[in-house]
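All the exercises in this workshop are built on plain-text protein records. Sequence and backbone structure share a record, each on its own labelled line. The question running through the whole workshop is how a given chain folds. The record below serves as our worked example for the rest of this section.
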Amino acid sequence: MYGGVEKMTDVNEQSFSAVTTTDVVNAHQRNPRRKHIPAPIWRFRPTLPPISVVKTIKTQIIPKIVLALRKAPVACPEEAAQQQNHSPVERFAALALASNDDAPFAYVEDLLGQGVPAESIFLDLLAPTARHFGSLWESDATDFASVTLAMSRLQRIMRRLGERFFDKAGQGSGESVLLTIVPGEQHSFGSSMVAEFFRRAGWNLCTGPFSSHQELTSLVHNHWFDIVGFSVSSDRRLGELQKGIQNIRRDSRNKNVGIILGGPAVIAQPGLVASMGADMMSADATAAPQQALGLIERMKSQN
């Protein structure tokens, strides 16, 4: 369902930012347990201490970016990206990592001009490129600053594509989904991409990340969600995930909420679905909304 890759966020962004696609007020009026939710549903952003944020930016982020830019190769990125012995993902990654901010956008625009659908660019180019950046970082083939800049470009491209993608969105039937990563994790690019497919299917959508499980549990307690989906990129926080799912089931306004897991760790270990206390796994972004609908019906039948 989700790719185990990284999402970059603006630390100066307000604590809330709107991401819903449809009004939640009219959703599921037939269910009296649903609490009236003013439109739109909001996406929580972690509230970061201003002093620590400024200190981190000044002492860690900016120096690394400046150093990376000083070390950037002089070679023309367009020429490097056209090397025939590189895969399309590697060529695109080279453009995103280079100093020309317009090159990766132009590459995607060219694909769209050739008739390549946005869905294919999401799944066959952006997602594997983000995973490629993760591999480069883990192998020390590139540095933090370069990956940070490249991922920010992927995020912007994904948002632009999402606007076109959303033009063909369905009306949906009022189902609501919360998609997030395990609090404390960093790899949320894949979760953001899956969110675009739910938006296209007409779901009411809320996305993370959250700074703590307490924030997440508070949200599902105060608002109705049919589905909560977690992207699990590694096995480092499985204990926290298991506890978080237990808290969601205990405190959720929807006592039949469905829990879906996805991401590299779950794809590699499908048994995590049962051991974490979730209901199902989804490994296909395109199929995730339909799978979620099936889970909703299954949860209702358990009453």
In short: The first strand starts at residue 16 and ends at 18.
